[in-house]
What does this fold into?
Amino acid sequence: MDDEESGDTRGRILRAALDLFSARGYQRTPLREIAERLGLTKAAILYHFPAKEDLLAALVEPLMTDLEALLKAAGGLPPEQGRWAVIEGFVDTMLAHRRPLGMLFQDMALVARGPTYQRLVQFALRANEIIAGPAGDRRDRIRASQAIAMCSDPVVFFLDVPSAVLRADMLDGVHRLLDGPPAPEAPVAPRRPGRPRAMNSAQIATARRMHTTGRHSVEEIAAALGVSRATVYRHLGDE
It folds into this structure.
């Protein structure tokens, strides 16, 4: 088996394993079933992955690599910039790996069996330090740990929500936690039907952050925030 064929077979095995683990769970998916789906023998699977646990580790590795790279990049930034680099980067990384995360959610006990668990713990501890800041007190550290949960749990609990919408909602929640609730809006006269809705300060900040990344259209931002495109354009024009 040459290197090119070997690499292609390994990728096919990983894709099939992810499909089956996501649908049925890791525990309920034997290696034989993965082999049968691909027209391979169980021995061929074991050639690439000597144990079933190695399959799981390989599926999770891209997520762990991205998380560790995120911490390395954010750790060299000024405290406030580093905080939001971790938070927004964490949200984006979680959304980019939604399928493996959904698979792990079905079999969370498996994570504690190998080195992946320790890597996750180390990530959480370091992310907590960056988000809380060098002068963070007990409450800052508690809010930081809450922010980390807010950036991960919804990804597996709301699989039916589009990524752009979920991203905006999660970041809005984290800003409310760390920055405090937005100031109450001034009373306004009843609006006529069809008039664009107003945006509060938190929504304006979220819209501007999404627009700055260059990854979201005005239509996507408007859908995520539940406002009209005209309303989004108006506030982006105030930048």
